Amino acid sequence: MKKRGILALLLIVAVSILCGCGGMSAKDAQSYLKSVLDASYKGEFGTYIDWTKSTKEEAKKLYEANIDVAIEESGLENLGLSEELLANYKQLYEDVINLVQYEVGEAEETGDKEYTIDVTLEPFIGFEGIQEETETAVKEELTKMPEIPDQSTIDEMYYQKLYDVMAEKVADPEYGDTVTVTVTVKPDSEGVYFIDQSDMAALDE
Length: 205
Hints:
Shape: elongated
Strand content: 15-25%
Number of helices: 8
C-alpha cells in the first residue's frame, strides 16, 4: 500500500463541468478541486454534488464502489479469507483514506481561464515495514504450534496479523514531511472544465 493511501484507486470521478460563458473563476476552481478531494478522501459530498449536479446517494455509491475496487485490486478476495476478515479490510481501507491530511491553496490563473492549484499533503507513513513485522510475528507463532497447518490456515493467520498491525498503525497515525503537488483545472476546446487525471494520480505517488 502506498504511503499516501490509495487515492489512485479511490478517487471519485472528477466530473467535467460547464461553467457558462464567463468560465470558471479562481475561487470556483479552488472550490471545485477541494470538493473532489473531500469526496474522495473524506466521503464528504456536499460541495461535490453541488458542482457535479449529482445526488448524495450517487456520490456515496460511487465512493463505496471504488473501495470495492481497491479490495479487488489488492487480491485479498482471491486468497480464501473469511468474510469477516475481508469486511474488516474494507473498513480499514476506508479508515486509511480518511487519514489523509491536505490543504488546497489558492488558484492562480496561468492561461485563458486555466488555473493551477497547489495541494499540500502530509503523507501517512505508518505502513512502512509492516510486511516484515507481520512475517516475523507469524513465523514466531508457527514455531509454537505442534504441527504446521495447511496453506489456507497460514494465509488466514498472516492476513489477520497484517490487519491487526495495520489497524494499530491507523489508530495512532504517523505522518511524513509535507509534500506539494500542483493540480491544473482547465477547460477543453468546448469550454468544459476538468481536472487532469495525471495530476490527480500524482497525489498518490
